[in-house]
Write a structure and sequence with these properties.
This protein is α+β, with helices and mostly antiparallel strands and 328 residues long. The chain has a domain at 34-204. The protein has 12 helices and 7 strands. It has helices at 3-9, 20-33, 35-49, 68-84, 138-160, 192-204, 208-214, 227-235, 252-262, 270-275, 282-289, 299-327; strands spanning 90-93, 97-101, 104-108, 112-115, 121-126, 171-177, 184-190. It is globular and about 85 Å long.
């Protein structure tokens, strides 16, 4: 389904996605990095990922155009197979990969994939945030590493269908503007941890057919349906809102409003939800702090009551000081 259109139909349109200015700037930088047949990109790949290999002088850049995502995925797989035994450098510009996500194929488009002379494959991520003095914002680098890890998993699926299977490198090339210029700088990022975490998460996902079987008969998410019907359809799929959803899901604003209406504590963050144990709503938390709910031996309940007692004591002391000041 088109989640952005669905969110608008529900009356909670999201601002999900980059600004037009950021997209334009990012596209211009990517075009600069890939100019002249990707000469600069391949130079960075050689320097940061494979300095022992021969220098890339005349790399192959195969045409990956095809009809539809399925056609592009097949064309990418063919180009990877042909490049693996070629013995030189090959640059795949915006290849199309497919990854099974809970029983449905998700089509992915990395910025680039490089085939090394030894036949191994590397993912390239091109970002427009700056690399100052050789390092970039850790949060942004972490997000780029998680994104690249998904591409590595998808590449491994392609490699597994070849005999022998070429190695997919777990060090990806991150290319960013150098300092405050528009010159590209590269850094090798190890994504083994992110890849392992993503693989575990994908393995634990509930299969789409299982979710579909649990839905009421006739459930439909078509954006042209009425808001009331769509709200009921979305509510039929279990979801747990957290602030992190705002950066990853078009339905986050809708779910946030539902979480506020239900008074759930997850809207305050997953770490807090984990510390509160069985107290799942703000009303339950306040009742536990007042001594009206919960087991006194529960560490979360004991901490809440202690915090409530300290707050009451602080308010009494503040009130006493205010009274004393007035009397003087």
């Amino acid at each position: 389904m088109d989640k952005a259109r669905l969110a608008s139909a529900l009356g909670a349109p999201s601002g999900f996605g980059q600004s037009q200015f950021a997209l334009t700037r990012g596209n211009a930088f990517e075009a600069k990095v890939k100019a002249d047949g990707g000469a600069e990109l391949l130079r960075l790949a050689h320097a940061r990922l494979d300095p022992g290999a021969e220098a890339p002088r005349a790399a192959a850049v195969p045409d990956l155009t095809a009809q539809g995502p399925e056609g592009r995925t097949a064309r990418t797989a063919l180009a990877l197979r042909e490049a693996t035994g070629a013995g030189g450098w090959t640059l795949l510009d915006h290849p199309m990969l497919a990854l099974d996500v809970a029983g449905s194929l998700a089509f992915l488009e990395p910025d680039a994939v490089v085939v090394h002379p030894d036949g191994s494959w590397s993912v390239v991520e091109i970002k427009s945030f700056p690399m100052l003095d050789g390092s970039a914002d850790p949060a942004k680098v972490g997000a780029a590493a998680r994104q690249a890890a998904v591409y590595v998993l998808a590449l491994e699926d392609v490699a597994a269908r070849l005999d022998p299977a070429p190695p997919v490198r777990h060090r990806v090339l991150l290319v960013c503007p150098k300092d405050f210029s528009n010159l590209p700088a590269g850094s090798a990022v190890d994504v083994r941890k992110q890849r392992a975490v993503t693989a575990r998460q994908l393995a634990r996902l509930t299969r789409i057919e299982e979710i579909a079987d649990s839905l009421p008969e006739g459930t439909c998410f078509a954006p042209d349906r009425g808001a009331e019907e769509l709200t009921a359809a979305v509510a039929a799929v279990p979801a747990t809102y957290a602030p992190e959803c705002l950066s990853a899901c078009e339905l986050a604003f809708h779910c946030r409003e539902r979480a506020r209406a239900a008074g759930t504590v997850t809207r305050l963050g997953r770490p807090l939800r984990a510390e509160l144990g069985g107290l799942t709503t703000v009303e339950d938390v306040l009742a536990a702090a007042r001594g009206e709910l919960g087991d006194p031996d529960d560490p979360a309940v004991a901490a809440l009551r202690r915090a409530a007692a300290l707050r009451a004591e602080a308010l009494r002391e503040a009130g006493d000081r205010e009274v004393a000041a007035v009397c003087r």
